[in-house]
Fold this sequence. Notes:
The protein is of the alpha/beta class. It folds into two domains: 151 residues, Sulfite Reductase Hemoprotein, domain 1, CATH 3.30.413; 62 residues, 2-Layer Sandwich (Alpha-Beta Plaits), CATH 3.30.70.3270. 28% of the residues lie in helices and 22% in strands. The strands form two sheets. It has a six-stranded mixed sheet. Strands 5-6 form a two-stranded antiparallel ribbon. Helix 1 runs parallel beside helix 5. The two termini are 35 Å apart. The protein binds iron/sulfur cluster (SF4) (3 copies). The site of one iron/sulfur cluster has 13 residues, from loops. The site of one iron/sulfur cluster has 14 residues, from helix 4.
Amino acid sequence: MNDVRFGWAVEVCRGGQGKACRFSLDVPQNFLHRLDQAVLESGWPEFVQTHVGQSPSHHALFRMALAGCANACSRPQIMDLGLLRAERPEVERNRCSGCGLCALACPEKSIEMVSLGDDGLQCPQIDYGQCLCCGRCVAACPEGAMEAGESGWRVVLGGRLGRMPSLAIELPGLYSDDAALGLTNIILQRFMRHWQPGLRFRSLLDELGVEKMIRGLLD
Ligand code: SF4
Ligand code: SF4
Ligand code: SF4
């Protein structure tokens, strides 16, 4: 689903819309509505109307994507702002049988089975630097020993296609619903403050740097 609003557009994958998808994580039902509200409250639509006019071109839109998991079917990596639903897996060692199914289920090979004691039992060790928080290991565990810990959104910024294509840059960590919406508002405020005709969001991001762009939210 690619919905164009006045001055912005949101592409949402099946899982993000609440439709059946076996990989989808738990996307809050009203999140898309809240995202629309965050854009409206930022003043972006009025800004576009004043500075661009009633019929903004494709390039003048602020483009966003929501994805229900790390598979990223709505292509957040090429949007100005992309949100990917995520949950960080955590091992409950007392319940783990050492079967290794979680490691087999991980497409990124982010889980290594290691011996932690003298009893020869193996236990999963997660490389969080490589983990995409996709939840497949959680779904694969027959003992309920791989649990969903913190859940929220991975946030990527500044993707674009066109003459100078760039993939979006991922911010560190996971963001709660409120934090992701606050970030959306701040980003649009920064964009409006520095806006010039023809300026693409990625160009501003490259000029200011990610930290300056989002300063205030992460302090
Ligand atoms: S991004 Fe994930 S949840 Fe969304 S449609 Fe693709 S596989 Fe399903
Ligand atoms: S959440 Fe996904 S990427 Fe991370 S360890 Fe589990 S299966 Fe691998
Ligand atoms: S799938 Fe579950 S029980 Fe099996 S090794 Fe992984 S965490 Fe342990």
